[in-house]
Design goal:
alpha+beta, 6 helices, 4-stranded mixed sheet, single chain, 4 strands
């Protein structure tokens, strides 16, 4: 009887250990996701005066951007936008969202680009204003479409493609072929017997 109770205690301790490891790895993963959500962007002004994101990369540093815009002579100039500058613009646009006047909420606004503040909010709301605000904005279908339309970076296209890719219905065998087309018969033994 002592052996059974010690076995039960061992199982309980083992289960508690597994649960603790899951909690710790979850916390570690959440911290990594929060760090990875910061972005380095290249935002480019279009001939119509609107802005789009042409490059996006995750970064461990603060969110920042290179802004390419036309000067008074029509020449493209670049400057670096800091996290603070981007956050201030995102907060201004978020206030417009709260008032219902933001272009990020208008159907089709992102198709030709948006204003600088709207573009920044559309692509970096979570990293600049927090995940709760970012998630709340992405629940708005017009905001989500404008965010996707404004972000023309290859990173954004590949990230959105991963989430919308459907899984194949056929399973792959160990040797790479489809299980549906495998010539292996279940009735035969391992060595052909």
């Amino acid at each position: 009887m002592k052996h059974i109770s010690s076995l039960q205690q061992g199982v309980m301790l083992g289960s508690a250990g597994v649960a603790m490891m899951a909690v710790l790895s979850g916390c570690s993963q959440q911290q990594q996701e929060q760090q990875a959500q910061n972005k380095f962007l290249v935002i480019e002004q279009q001939p119509n005066g609107k802005y789009i994101v042409v490059e996006e990369m995750p970064t461990e540093g603060p969110t920042r951007a290179i802004l390419r815009e036309y000067d008074e002579n029509g020449h493209m100039k670049e400057r670096i936008m800091s996290d603070e500058e981007m956050k201030a613009l995102a907060e201004q646009e978020y206030q417009r969202v709260q008032n219902g006047t933001s272009e990020t909420l208008q159907e089709g606004a992102g198709d030709t680009g948006m204003g600088l503040a709207g573009t920044i909010l559309a692509v970096a709301a979570g990293s600049l204003l927090g995940n709760m605000i970012g998630n709340a904005l992405m629940n708005n279908s017009a905001f989500k479409r404008n965010s996707q339309a404004t972000n023309r970076s290859a990173y954004s296209r590949s990230a959105s493609g991963k989430s919308s890719t459907k899984k194949s219905s056929s399973k792959k065998s160990f040797f790479g072929g489809s299980s549906k087309s495998s010539s292996y018969r279940k009735s035969s033994g391992f060595f052909g017997g």
